[in-house]
Amino acid sequence: xxxxxxxxxxxxxxxxxxxxxxxxxxxxxxxxxxxxxxxxxxxxxxxxxxxxxxxxxxxxxxxxxxxxxxxxxxxxxxxxxxxxxxxxxxxxxxxxxxxxxxxxxxxxxxxxxxxxxxxxxxxxxxxxxxxxxxxxxxxxxxxxxxxxxxxxxxxxxxxxxxxxxxxxxxxxxxxxxxxxxxxxxxxxxxxxxxxxxxxxxxxxxxxxxxxxxxxxxxxxxxxxxxxxxxxxxxxxxxxxxxxxxxxxxxxxxxxxxxxxxxxxxxxxxxxxxxxxxxxxxxxxxxxxxxxxxxxxxxxxxxxxxxxxxxxxxxxxxxxxxxxxxxxxxxxxxxxxxxxxxxxxxxxx
Length: 348
Fold this sequence. Notes:
Helix content: over 70%
Strand content: under 5%
Low-confidence stretches: none
Largest sheet: none
Shape: globular
Mean pLDDT: 82
Oligomer: single chain
Protein backbone atom coordinates (compact mmCIF):
# COMPACT_ATOMS: atom_id res chain seq x y z
CA UNK A 1 0.00 0.00 0.00
CA UNK A 2 2.78 2.40 0.96
CA UNK A 3 4.76 1.54 -2.18
CA UNK A 4 1.68 2.17 -4.33
CA UNK A 5 1.15 5.60 -2.76
CA UNK A 6 4.80 6.48 -3.22
CA UNK A 7 4.65 5.39 -6.86
CA UNK A 8 1.54 7.53 -7.48
CA UNK A 9 3.16 10.50 -5.77
CA UNK A 10 6.30 10.08 -7.86
CA UNK A 11 4.24 9.80 -11.05
CA UNK A 12 2.24 12.92 -10.17
CA UNK A 13 5.50 14.78 -9.54
CA UNK A 14 6.91 13.76 -12.92
CA UNK A 15 3.70 14.78 -14.68
CA UNK A 16 3.70 18.15 -12.90
CA UNK A 17 7.34 18.71 -13.83
CA UNK A 18 6.60 17.81 -17.44
CA UNK A 19 3.71 20.27 -17.62
CA UNK A 20 5.85 23.06 -16.15
CA UNK A 21 8.59 22.31 -18.68
CA UNK A 22 6.13 22.51 -21.57
CA UNK A 23 4.79 25.83 -20.27
CA UNK A 24 8.24 27.39 -20.25
CA UNK A 25 8.81 30.05 -22.88
CA UNK A 26 11.60 29.42 -25.38
CA UNK A 27 13.91 32.00 -26.88
CA UNK A 28 12.29 31.73 -30.31
CA UNK A 29 8.86 32.34 -28.80
CA UNK A 30 10.02 35.48 -27.03
CA UNK A 31 11.77 36.67 -30.19
CA UNK A 32 8.61 36.05 -32.25
CA UNK A 33 6.46 38.27 -30.07
CA UNK A 34 9.16 40.92 -29.77
CA UNK A 35 9.28 41.12 -33.57
CA UNK A 36 5.48 41.31 -33.70
CA UNK A 37 5.54 44.22 -31.25
CA UNK A 38 8.39 45.91 -33.13
CA UNK A 39 6.39 45.74 -36.36
CA UNK A 40 3.96 48.31 -34.96
CA UNK A 41 6.80 50.81 -34.54
CA UNK A 42 8.89 50.06 -37.63
CA UNK A 43 6.20 49.22 -40.21
CA UNK A 44 3.61 51.99 -39.83
CA UNK A 45 2.74 51.94 -43.54
CA UNK A 46 1.84 48.24 -43.40
CA UNK A 47 -0.57 48.32 -40.48
CA UNK A 48 -3.63 47.64 -42.64
CA UNK A 49 -2.26 44.43 -44.12
CA UNK A 50 -0.77 43.42 -40.77
CA UNK A 51 -4.24 43.77 -39.23
CA UNK A 52 -5.58 41.36 -41.87
CA UNK A 53 -2.76 38.93 -41.06
CA UNK A 54 -3.69 38.99 -37.38
CA UNK A 55 -7.33 38.28 -38.27
CA UNK A 56 -6.28 35.26 -40.33
CA UNK A 57 -4.02 34.14 -37.49
CA UNK A 58 -6.89 34.13 -34.97
CA UNK A 59 -9.08 32.18 -37.40
CA UNK A 60 -6.30 29.65 -38.05
CA UNK A 61 -5.72 29.37 -34.30
CA UNK A 62 -9.35 28.38 -33.81
CA UNK A 63 -9.10 25.73 -36.55
CA UNK A 64 -5.84 24.41 -35.10
CA UNK A 65 -7.48 23.82 -31.73
CA UNK A 66 -10.00 21.42 -33.23
CA UNK A 67 -8.00 20.00 -36.14
CA UNK A 68 -4.42 20.01 -34.89
CA UNK A 69 -5.14 19.02 -31.29
CA UNK A 70 -8.48 17.20 -31.39
CA UNK A 71 -8.26 15.74 -34.90
CA UNK A 72 -11.71 17.03 -35.96
CA UNK A 73 -11.79 17.99 -39.64
CA UNK A 74 -14.05 20.94 -40.45
CA UNK A 75 -14.97 23.09 -43.43
CA UNK A 76 -17.46 25.26 -41.59
CA UNK A 77 -15.45 27.52 -39.35
CA UNK A 78 -16.86 30.39 -41.41
CA UNK A 79 -20.18 29.79 -39.62
CA UNK A 80 -18.78 30.92 -36.26
CA UNK A 81 -16.57 33.55 -37.90
CA UNK A 82 -19.52 35.09 -39.73
CA UNK A 83 -21.88 34.92 -36.76
CA UNK A 84 -19.27 36.66 -34.61
CA UNK A 85 -18.74 39.31 -37.28
CA UNK A 86 -22.45 40.02 -37.66
CA UNK A 87 -23.10 39.86 -33.91
CA UNK A 88 -20.45 42.49 -33.16
CA UNK A 89 -21.63 44.70 -36.03
CA UNK A 90 -25.31 44.54 -35.09
CA UNK A 91 -24.42 45.05 -31.43
CA UNK A 92 -22.40 48.18 -32.29
CA UNK A 93 -25.32 49.63 -34.28
CA UNK A 94 -28.18 48.95 -31.87
CA UNK A 95 -26.51 48.79 -28.45
CA UNK A 96 -23.00 50.21 -28.15
CA UNK A 97 -19.88 50.50 -30.26
CA UNK A 98 -17.53 49.75 -27.37
CA UNK A 99 -15.02 47.35 -28.99
CA UNK A 100 -14.18 45.08 -26.04
CA UNK A 101 -17.84 44.49 -25.26
CA UNK A 102 -18.37 43.71 -28.93
CA UNK A 103 -15.61 41.10 -28.74
CA UNK A 104 -17.33 39.40 -25.81
CA UNK A 105 -20.65 39.37 -27.68
CA UNK A 106 -18.96 37.88 -30.76
CA UNK A 107 -17.21 35.22 -28.67
CA UNK A 108 -20.51 34.22 -27.02
CA UNK A 109 -22.28 34.12 -30.40
CA UNK A 110 -19.55 31.96 -31.96
CA UNK A 111 -19.46 29.65 -28.94
CA UNK A 112 -23.26 29.30 -28.97
CA UNK A 113 -23.34 28.28 -32.65
CA UNK A 114 -20.49 25.84 -32.11
CA UNK A 115 -22.17 24.31 -29.05
CA UNK A 116 -25.52 23.91 -30.81
CA UNK A 117 -23.96 22.29 -33.88
CA UNK A 118 -21.34 20.20 -32.06
CA UNK A 119 -23.81 17.38 -31.45
CA UNK A 120 -24.31 17.03 -35.19
CA UNK A 121 -20.56 17.05 -35.63
CA UNK A 122 -20.08 14.07 -33.31
CA UNK A 123 -22.46 11.77 -35.14
CA UNK A 124 -20.21 10.83 -38.07
CA UNK A 125 -16.70 10.26 -39.33
CA UNK A 126 -14.43 12.74 -41.12
CA UNK A 127 -16.38 12.89 -44.40
CA UNK A 128 -19.69 13.34 -42.58
CA UNK A 129 -18.17 16.06 -40.43
CA UNK A 130 -16.94 17.91 -43.50
CA UNK A 131 -20.42 17.89 -45.03
CA UNK A 132 -22.16 18.82 -41.77
CA UNK A 133 -19.89 21.76 -41.04
CA UNK A 134 -20.10 22.95 -44.63
CA UNK A 135 -23.89 22.64 -44.52
CA UNK A 136 -24.17 24.64 -41.29
CA UNK A 137 -22.19 27.52 -42.80
CA UNK A 138 -24.31 27.41 -45.98
CA UNK A 139 -27.56 27.50 -43.97
CA UNK A 140 -26.41 30.45 -41.89
CA UNK A 141 -25.25 32.28 -45.01
CA UNK A 142 -28.70 31.92 -46.59
CA UNK A 143 -30.41 33.03 -43.38
CA UNK A 144 -28.23 36.14 -43.31
CA UNK A 145 -29.03 36.77 -46.97
CA UNK A 146 -32.79 36.53 -46.40
CA UNK A 147 -32.76 38.60 -43.19
CA UNK A 148 -31.64 41.70 -45.07
CA UNK A 149 -33.60 43.93 -42.67
CA UNK A 150 -31.05 42.98 -40.00
CA UNK A 151 -27.88 41.98 -41.83
CA UNK A 152 -28.08 44.14 -44.95
CA UNK A 153 -28.27 41.03 -47.13
CA UNK A 154 -26.16 41.07 -50.29
CA UNK A 155 -25.35 44.76 -49.75
CA UNK A 156 -23.61 44.06 -46.46
CA UNK A 157 -24.13 45.48 -43.01
CA UNK A 158 -23.44 49.20 -43.12
CA UNK A 159 -23.55 52.00 -40.59
CA UNK A 160 -21.19 50.29 -38.15
CA UNK A 161 -19.44 52.73 -35.84
CA UNK A 162 -16.84 51.65 -33.31
CA UNK A 163 -16.12 53.84 -30.30
CA UNK A 164 -12.53 54.83 -29.46
CA UNK A 165 -10.65 52.11 -27.60
CA UNK A 166 -10.71 52.88 -23.85
CA UNK A 167 -12.37 56.16 -24.84
CA UNK A 168 -9.12 57.64 -26.22
CA UNK A 169 -7.76 55.69 -29.22
CA UNK A 170 -9.86 56.07 -32.35
CA UNK A 171 -9.84 53.48 -35.13
CA UNK A 172 -8.17 55.51 -37.88
CA UNK A 173 -8.14 54.76 -41.62
CA UNK A 174 -4.43 53.93 -41.49
CA UNK A 175 -4.97 50.98 -39.16
CA UNK A 176 -2.61 52.12 -36.40
CA UNK A 177 -5.08 51.58 -33.56
CA UNK A 178 -6.68 48.60 -35.30
CA UNK A 179 -3.39 46.75 -35.59
CA UNK A 180 -2.31 47.40 -32.00
CA UNK A 181 -5.75 46.33 -30.79
CA UNK A 182 -5.84 43.18 -32.94
CA UNK A 183 -2.29 42.20 -31.99
CA UNK A 184 -3.10 42.56 -28.28
CA UNK A 185 -6.21 40.40 -28.69
CA UNK A 186 -4.20 37.77 -30.60
CA UNK A 187 -1.58 37.67 -27.84
CA UNK A 188 -4.18 37.18 -25.11
CA UNK A 189 -5.95 34.45 -27.10
CA UNK A 190 -2.64 32.76 -27.81
CA UNK A 191 -1.74 32.75 -24.10
CA UNK A 192 -5.08 31.14 -23.25
CA UNK A 193 -4.69 28.55 -26.02
CA UNK A 194 -1.13 27.82 -24.90
CA UNK A 195 -2.28 27.18 -21.35
CA UNK A 196 -5.12 25.05 -22.64
CA UNK A 197 -3.10 22.71 -24.86
CA UNK A 198 -0.39 22.34 -22.20
CA UNK A 199 -2.89 21.33 -19.52
CA UNK A 200 -4.24 17.83 -18.78
CA UNK A 201 -7.27 18.81 -20.86
CA UNK A 202 -5.00 19.50 -23.83
CA UNK A 203 -3.20 16.18 -23.43
CA UNK A 204 -6.53 14.38 -23.36
CA UNK A 205 -7.38 16.04 -26.69
CA UNK A 206 -4.15 14.74 -28.18
CA UNK A 207 -5.00 11.26 -26.92
CA UNK A 208 -8.41 11.50 -28.60
CA UNK A 209 -6.78 12.71 -31.81
CA UNK A 210 -4.32 9.82 -31.88
CA UNK A 211 -6.73 7.04 -30.90
CA UNK A 212 -10.32 7.82 -29.81
CA UNK A 213 -11.10 4.21 -28.85
CA UNK A 214 -8.04 3.92 -26.62
CA UNK A 215 -8.79 7.32 -25.06
CA UNK A 216 -12.34 6.19 -24.26
CA UNK A 217 -11.02 2.92 -22.83
CA UNK A 218 -8.79 4.71 -20.30
CA UNK A 219 -11.69 6.84 -19.08
CA UNK A 220 -11.46 10.03 -21.12
CA UNK A 221 -14.96 11.42 -21.88
CA UNK A 222 -14.37 11.73 -25.63
CA UNK A 223 -17.64 13.37 -26.66
CA UNK A 224 -17.63 15.87 -23.81
CA UNK A 225 -14.03 16.86 -24.61
CA UNK A 226 -14.80 17.33 -28.32
CA UNK A 227 -17.89 19.43 -27.55
CA UNK A 228 -15.83 21.58 -25.18
CA UNK A 229 -12.96 22.23 -27.59
CA UNK A 230 -15.32 22.84 -30.51
CA UNK A 231 -17.17 25.43 -28.43
CA UNK A 232 -13.93 27.13 -27.43
CA UNK A 233 -12.75 27.14 -31.05
CA UNK A 234 -16.10 28.65 -32.03
CA UNK A 235 -15.53 31.49 -29.58
CA UNK A 236 -12.09 32.10 -31.12
CA UNK A 237 -13.59 32.16 -34.63
CA UNK A 238 -16.28 34.59 -33.46
CA UNK A 239 -13.61 36.92 -32.08
CA UNK A 240 -11.75 36.71 -35.40
CA UNK A 241 -14.90 37.83 -37.20
CA UNK A 242 -15.42 40.64 -34.71
CA UNK A 243 -11.88 41.90 -35.27
CA UNK A 244 -12.59 42.16 -38.98
CA UNK A 245 -15.88 43.99 -38.42
CA UNK A 246 -14.45 46.42 -35.89
CA UNK A 247 -11.34 47.32 -37.89
CA UNK A 248 -13.13 47.50 -41.27
CA UNK A 249 -16.48 48.79 -39.93
CA UNK A 250 -18.24 46.74 -42.58
CA UNK A 251 -19.30 43.12 -43.01
CA UNK A 252 -20.78 41.20 -45.94
CA UNK A 253 -22.01 37.68 -46.71
CA UNK A 254 -18.44 36.72 -47.64
CA UNK A 255 -17.84 36.21 -43.93
CA UNK A 256 -20.10 33.14 -44.05
CA UNK A 257 -18.82 31.79 -47.36
CA UNK A 258 -16.90 28.59 -47.98
CA UNK A 259 -13.97 30.73 -49.13
CA UNK A 260 -13.43 31.98 -45.58
CA UNK A 261 -13.16 28.45 -44.19
CA UNK A 262 -10.91 27.45 -47.08
CA UNK A 263 -8.62 30.42 -46.41
CA UNK A 264 -8.32 29.44 -42.76
CA UNK A 265 -7.45 25.86 -43.64
CA UNK A 266 -4.97 27.02 -46.27
CA UNK A 267 -3.22 29.21 -43.72
CA UNK A 268 -3.00 26.28 -41.32
CA UNK A 269 -1.69 23.89 -43.97
CA UNK A 270 1.07 26.35 -44.85
CA UNK A 271 2.12 26.85 -41.23
CA UNK A 272 1.51 23.31 -39.98
CA UNK A 273 -1.01 21.85 -37.55
CA UNK A 274 -0.65 20.79 -33.97
CA UNK A 275 1.60 23.59 -32.73
CA UNK A 276 -0.03 26.94 -32.12
CA UNK A 277 2.52 28.99 -34.04
CA UNK A 278 1.58 27.18 -37.24
CA UNK A 279 -1.48 29.35 -37.75
CA UNK A 280 0.42 32.53 -36.94
CA UNK A 281 3.31 31.79 -39.27
CA UNK A 282 0.97 30.49 -41.96
CA UNK A 283 -1.13 33.67 -41.83
CA UNK A 284 1.96 35.80 -42.37
CA UNK A 285 3.29 33.67 -45.23
CA UNK A 286 -0.09 33.32 -46.93
CA UNK A 287 -0.95 37.02 -46.84
CA UNK A 288 2.51 38.11 -47.98
CA UNK A 289 2.38 35.62 -50.86
CA UNK A 290 -1.15 36.65 -51.76
CA UNK A 291 -0.34 40.36 -51.69
CA UNK A 292 2.90 39.92 -53.62
CA UNK A 293 1.44 37.68 -56.32
CA UNK A 294 -1.66 39.83 -56.79
CA UNK A 295 0.65 42.76 -57.46
CA UNK A 296 2.80 40.83 -59.93
CA UNK A 297 0.04 38.90 -61.72
CA UNK A 298 -3.38 40.41 -60.91
CA UNK A 299 -5.20 37.93 -63.18
CA UNK A 300 -3.46 34.70 -62.24
CA UNK A 301 -2.36 35.16 -58.63
CA UNK A 302 -4.80 32.46 -57.40
CA UNK A 303 -3.16 29.95 -59.74
CA UNK A 304 0.27 30.61 -58.24
CA UNK A 305 -1.11 30.50 -54.70
CA UNK A 306 -2.51 27.05 -55.56
CA UNK A 307 0.85 25.91 -56.92
CA UNK A 308 2.62 27.08 -53.77
CA UNK A 309 0.01 25.37 -51.60
CA UNK A 310 0.61 22.07 -53.41
CA UNK A 311 4.35 22.56 -52.90
CA UNK A 312 3.83 23.11 -49.17
CA UNK A 313 1.73 19.94 -48.92
CA UNK A 314 4.28 17.87 -50.84
CA UNK A 315 7.06 19.20 -48.62
CA UNK A 316 5.16 17.94 -45.58
CA UNK A 317 2.74 19.75 -43.33
CA UNK A 318 5.02 19.21 -40.33
CA UNK A 319 8.10 20.67 -42.02
CA UNK A 320 7.71 24.21 -40.54
CA UNK A 321 7.28 22.76 -37.07
CA UNK A 322 10.33 20.55 -37.50
CA UNK A 323 12.42 23.53 -38.59
CA UNK A 324 11.28 25.56 -35.58
CA UNK A 325 11.98 22.66 -33.22
CA UNK A 326 15.46 22.12 -34.68
CA UNK A 327 16.27 25.81 -34.34
CA UNK A 328 14.97 25.81 -30.77
CA UNK A 329 17.05 22.72 -29.87
CA UNK A 330 20.12 24.27 -31.48
CA UNK A 331 19.73 27.47 -29.43
CA UNK A 332 19.14 25.47 -26.23
CA UNK A 333 22.28 23.45 -26.99
CA UNK A 334 24.31 26.64 -27.36
CA UNK A 335 22.97 27.95 -24.04
CA UNK A 336 23.83 24.66 -22.33
CA UNK A 337 27.39 24.75 -23.68
CA UNK A 338 27.75 28.35 -22.51
CA UNK A 339 26.61 27.41 -19.00
CA UNK A 340 28.99 24.45 -18.87
CA UNK A 341 31.90 26.70 -19.88
CA UNK A 342 30.90 29.18 -17.18
CA UNK A 343 30.79 26.40 -14.55
CA UNK A 344 34.19 25.08 -15.65
CA UNK A 345 35.62 28.59 -15.52
CA UNK A 346 34.41 29.11 -11.96
CA UNK A 347 35.71 25.71 -10.80
CA UNK A 348 39.16 26.32 -12.29
